[in-house]
Every structure is written in structure tokens, then in C-alpha cells.
Automatic annotation (TrEMBL):
Organism annotation: Pseudonocardia xinjiangensis
Encoding gene (name): galE
Protein's name according to its UniProt entry: UDP-glucose 4-epimerase
The protein's Enzyme Commission number: 5.1.3.2
Keyword set, alphabetical order: Carbohydrate metabolism, Isomerase, NAD
CDD domains recorded: UDP_G4E_1_SDR_e
Record text on subunit structure and interactions: Homodimer.
Biological pathway: Carbohydrate metabolism; galactose metabolism
């Protein structure tokens, strides 16, 4: 298929683009490089550096079989402080993409959604029919986009799938996580191991969990990419399907840090900080729907394997 990958120079987008190229698809990556990296665009993909809202119409006029939409702002804290960036950069920009999709009759869309659409869960594991009550503008913006996509599918016959990620981690060869502002646990811990950070903060050690630290569901980025390829194949005209993507297994903050110590051989000092407001104690996905409907099943659920791939990528970025 001829596919447009928006945000394909970012972490998840670049890994998915690499998988698409490897599968034989004709891939165009669109990215403004505001947070992405041009060297993360996989070999064999065409690269267009441009603003999505401005370029989507002209690009889709070329005729594409589908769009995989990763381009977005994704910092929770920033979304609270500057919500206008998220309503404009996520919601308004995606509306313009949807309009271009409608005008040029692009048949398929796979959207990068998030577990943040659920907010604080009433029960775990979290299913797709769980209440959606996002606690920050980032999650709210993604939920608004899910609603917009559903209406376009019903009205215009778009075959669409939203994939709600839990904690994405790991790396795919030279494609990995490198944010200017890093907020994710595993890369933060690995920064300590590589010497670019002194200590890891643990936000609360008195949570109602076995070791007192928060528990999260980590999914390997390669498993995530595999789900996107399956979503493209299974998208049905006039339908908007939503699937959670997680391993179905939770690891505590302390377990993740210990896995990083094992992989890196570094002691990784920690300090306990107060709990962060809005942090649920446990977030674990039910991915039963993706397993049943897409035939998807995560292959890399061992936290040491996930950390090991991320560590190899981190080392590859270190100066020689």
C-alpha cells in the first residue's frame, strides 16, 4: 500500500515506518522535525519536512491507500500549563487532516491514541468500554480526536482504527526514544546509567501496591508497530474500531529500576519524592479485543528484554 506516516520522524512513528518499509509498503514520512529527527526516517521512505496542517491536502491529493497518524504534542505537564497548544496542535490539526482525507477519499486511517483518554481507572485491567474521563488536556485532546474520527467513519465511510497505547518502551535497532524533554521512566533511568543524570526520582513509595511504588503496563515498541500493520489490514469501511495495546502485565517502578540495574550493571541511585497528583496506583491494559479481532499478541513482554533493547539504543547514541 501507499501510506502516509505523519510524525514518522518521532519515536513510535519512526519504528512503525521502519516496519512498514520492511513489509514492502510505499511509505512517505511527513514531519516538521519540531520534536522528531531526520536521521530517524527509515531508509526506503520518502521524507517530506512540512507542517501537517499546511501540507496534508496537497500530499493526499497524490493518492494514498492510508494514513498512520502519529504527529501530536504529548507532554502531560505542558498540556496542563498550555492547553491551547494541545487543542490547536492536536485537535485542530487532525481536523484538517480528516478534511484532506475526506476530500481525497483516502480509505484508511490508523490513529495513535493513548491510555490517557481513560484518566483514573475504576478497575484494572482497563478495557475499551471503560469510562473515558481524561485528567489532563493531552488525554482530552486525544479523546476528542477519537470522537471526530468516529463521526467521519460513520458519515464518510472511512475505515479507521484508534490504538490506545499504554507505556511504550524499548527500541528497534537504530530507532529509539530520544526526547528533548524526557518524562518516561525507562529512558530517565538509563540516563543515570549512562552518566547524563545523577539520580532517579521515585514519586511515592506508599502506594497500595506490593512494593509501594506505582505499577504500569509496558509494551515493546516492536509489538506496537506490529499492531499498526494489523490494524491497516483489518480496518473496515464505515467503522471506527478502538483497541488498547499493552502487555497485560504490570511492573512497578522499583521492578523497572531493578531491571535497569541488571541490564546496565550500574547501581542507579534513587530518591523518593512526593506522589504526583493524578497518578493512579496501577495502570494495566486489557488487550483481549486486539488479540481477538486483529490476531495481535505481544511477543516481548519480559521487562529485561524491553530495557535491554532501550539500553543498546542509548549506548549507540553515546560519543565514542
Amino acid at each position: 500500500m501507499k501510506l502516509l506516516v505523519t510524525g514518522g520522524a518521532g519515536y513510535v512513528g519512526s519504528v512503525c515506518a521502519a516496519h512498514l518499509v520492511d513489509a514492502g509498503h510505499d511509505v512517505t514520512v511527513l514531519d516538521d522535525l519540531s520534536t522528531g529527527h531526520q536521521d530517524a526516517v527509515p531508509d526506503g521512505a520518502r521524507f517530506v519536512q512540512a507542517d501537517l496542517a499546511e501540507a496534508a491536502d496537497d500530499l493526499l491529493a497524490e493518492g494514498f491507500d492510508g494514513v498512520l497518524h502519529f504527529a501530536a504534542r504529548s507532554l502531560v505537564g505542558e498540556s496542563v500549563q498550555r492547553p491551547e497548544l494541545y487543542w490547536s496542535g492536536n485537535v485542530v490539526t487532525t481536523f484538517r487532516l480528516l478534511e484532506a482525507i475526506r476530500r481525497h477519499e483516502t480509505p484508511r486511517l490508523v490513529f495513535s491514541s493513548t491510555a490517557a483518554t481513560y484518566g483514573e481507572p475504576e478497575q484494572v485491567p482497563i478495557r475499551e468500554d471503560s469510562p473515558t474521563r481524561p485528567t489532563n488536556p493531552y488525554g482530552a485532546s486525544k479523546l476528542a480526536i477519537d470522537h471526530a474520527i468516529r463521526s467521519y467513519s460513520i458519515a464518510h465511510g472511512l475505515a479507521a482504527v484508534s490504538l490506545r497505547y499504554f507505556n511504550v518502551a524499548g527500541a528497534h535497532g537504530r530507532f529509539g526514544e530520544r526526547h528533548t524533554v524526557e518524562t518516561h521512566l525507562i529512558p530517565l533511568v538509563l540516563q543515570v546509567a549512562s552518566g547524563t543524570r545523577d539520580v532517579v526520582q521515585v514519586f511515592g513509595d506508599d502506594w497500595p501496591t506490593p512494593d509501594g511504588t506505582c505499577v504500569r503496563d509496558y509494551i515493546h515498541v516492536d509489538d506496537l508497530a506490529a499492531a499498526h500493520l494489523l490494524a491497516l489490514e483489518h480496518a473496515k469501511p464505515g467503522e471506527h474500531a478502538i483497541y488498547n495495546l499493552g502487555s497485560g502485565t504490570g511492573f512497578s517502578v522499583r521492578e523497572v529500576i531493578e531491571a535497569c540495574r541488571t541490564v546496565t550493571g550500574h547501581p542507579i541511585p534513587t530518591t523518593v519524592a512526593p506522589r504526583r497528583s493524578g497518578d493512579p496506583a496501577v495502570l494495566i491494559a486489557s488487550s483481549e479485543a486486539a488479540v481477538a479481532d486483529l490476531g495481535w499478541r505481544p511477543q516481548y513482554t519480559d521487562i529485561t528484554r524491553i530495557v535491554g533493547d532501550a539500553w543498546r539504543f542509548t549506548q549507540s547514541r553515546q560519543p565514542v
